[in-house]
Amino acid sequence: MSSNLRRRVCGPFGCVWIALALFLSGAVQAETPGLGIGYGLALGYGYGVAPREKQRGRDVQDVQTLAIEPYLRLPLHSFGDGQRWYHGQLEGLLQATILVELEPRSGTAAGGVVGLRYLLRPGARLRPYAEGGLGVGDLDFNLSGQDDGVSFFIHTALGVRYPLDERFALIASFLWQHVSNANSHPPNLGIDTVGFRIGLELW
Fold it and tell me: What region, left, alpha or beta, does residue 34 occupy, with left being phi > 0 and alpha being psi -120 to 50 degrees?
């Protein structure tokens, strides 16, 4: 990652995410004592797709990425008593996203994401979940169809969590991710990838 990218993302964006994490952690601990904050690290792969006609045949369709995503999990609210299939727990996510461009060129992207995750089947060994997030960061992929610079990161995922013991759990998910700049600085065809994430969580 270039020094300019580190300064632009890890400087102001880093301060914002740290401050937000401290604020939310205090609120969560005050309202739900004993649950605490969870931590996680996920690694993943993304493969470029072209859901829109204008992306087809352009280099944004050829993107392949390696993802590195450390994050905090904040318990927010539990729904139901576990007797219904839709009962579960809502968690907040504060996530740093680092993308390494593998194809069609060599580049990086980094930013911060705020998200929500809803875990089904409280008390079950294998817990499915749905997740979504929105963030902002800096793109440096050197593509002809997508301008570098400040960009927005959007993702949705479906996954499962499997506990190893009282403190550790494995996660695996199928994920769609979109990166674009909302037409603030063209070209802006958008980068869409589908892929997976696997990770380890602890309390």
Answer: left
- CA 90 vs CA 75, 81, 140: distances in Å: 6, 14, 33
For the domain with range 3-202, which CATH number is right: 2.40.160.20, 2.30.130.10, 2.130.10.10, 3.40.30.10?
2.40.160.20
Q: For residue range 95-105, list pLDDT tens digits in order.
A: 999 999 999 99
Six token digits for residue 8? 């632009």
pTM of full prediction above 0.70: yes
Q: Are 66 and 106 in contact (CB under 8 A)?
A: no
Token pair belonging to 32: 């739900």
Domain boundaries of the chain, sorted by first residue:
3-202
What's the pLDDT tens digit per position in 18-56?
444 444 444 444 333 345 799 999 999 999 999 999 999
Q: Are 128 and 160 in contact (CB under 8 A)?
A: yes
**Cα distance between residue 36 and residue 203, in whole Å:** 7
What is the amino acid identity at position 174?
F
3 state DSSP class of 96: strand
Looking at per-residue confidence, does 141 or 18 come out higher?
141
HEC sequence for 109-160: EEEEEEEEEEEECCCCCCEEEEEEEEEEEEEECCCCCECCEEEEEEEEEEEE
